[in-house]
Amino acid sequence: MSTQTPNRLQSRYAGITLEGTAHPLSAWFVVALRLVLGGMILFAGLGKFAAVPGGEAFNAAGYLGNVDAASPVAGLYGAMAASPMLMDVINVIIPVTQVLIGLALIVGVFVRLAALGGAMQMGAFYLGGWEGEWLALFDSTLVYAILFLALGAFAAGRILGADRYIEQLDFGGQPLTDRFPALRYILG
Questions:
Q1: Range of the domain at 130
Q2: d(CA 88, CA 104)
C-alpha cells in the first residue's frame, strides 16, 4: 500500500465548496475504471462489426424506430430511422466511435475526448430508452454516462496512460500543453 499523502479534492461552484481527500489507492481504481469502461465499449463496438445471427449487419434503425412514445427523442429518433441515407451514416459512426473510444480509454490517450464521446453516446441511449416512468430514471446507461464523465474529470489518461507523456512532448522548447493550452481539454 502506498504511503503517499492522499490527494486533496476541492471545488467551488455557485457558492458551494466541496472538499475531501482521496485515498492513495484511488489512482488504481481510476485506472481500473478506465480499463473496464474502455473494454466494455470496445467490445460493444466490435460486436456491431460482426454479423448477427442470420447474417444481418448492425442496423440502428430497429432501435431508433421503436423508441417509446414517452421518450423526449421519440420523434427525432423515428425521423432518423426513416432516413436511409442518415441510417447508412449512423450504422458506421456508432460502431467506429465505440471502438475508438474503447481503444483510447484502454491506452489512456485523448481520454477526455473519449470520455465525452462515451458520455454522449450513453446519454443518447438513455434518452432513447426513456419510457416516461420516474422509477426508471436511474438506469445503467445514465450510470455509464456519469462514469465516463468521471474519467474525464479525474484526467484518467494522466494515470498510467499515454496522455501523461503526450502532454509533456517537447514542441518548440515547451511541453505540448503549454504551447497549445486548448489540448488540455482533450488530453488528460
A1: 35-185
A2: 25
Is residue 23 situated within a structural domain? Answer: no
Interval 69-108: pLDDT, tens: 888 899 999 999 999 999 999 999 999 999 999 999 999 9
**What three-state secondary structure class fits 73?**
coil
Is 157 a domain residue?
Answer: yes
> pTM of this prediction?
0.86
The DSSP secondary-structure symbol of 52 reads B
Which grid cell sits at 102?
A: 474503447
Give the burial class of 67: count Cβ atoms within 10 A of its Cβ; 0-12 exposed, 13-18 middle, 19 or more buried: buried
pLDDT in tens, 101-154: 999 999 999 999 999 999 999 999 999 988 777 766 788 899 999 999 999 999
Could you tell me which of 133, 130, 160 has the C-alpha nearest to residue 145? 130
> Kind and range of the H or E element at 171?
strand 170-171
**Domain presence at residue 30:** no
- Count of domains observed in the chain: 1
Q: Which of 181, 124, 184, 130 is nearest to 148 (CA)?
A: 124
The pLDDT score that the predictor gives to residue 1 is 46
Closest CA relative to residue 115, chosen from 140, 134, 97, 139: 97
Is there a contact between 112 and 187 (Cβ–Cβ < 8 Å)? yes
**Residue carrying C-alpha cell 432516413:** 83
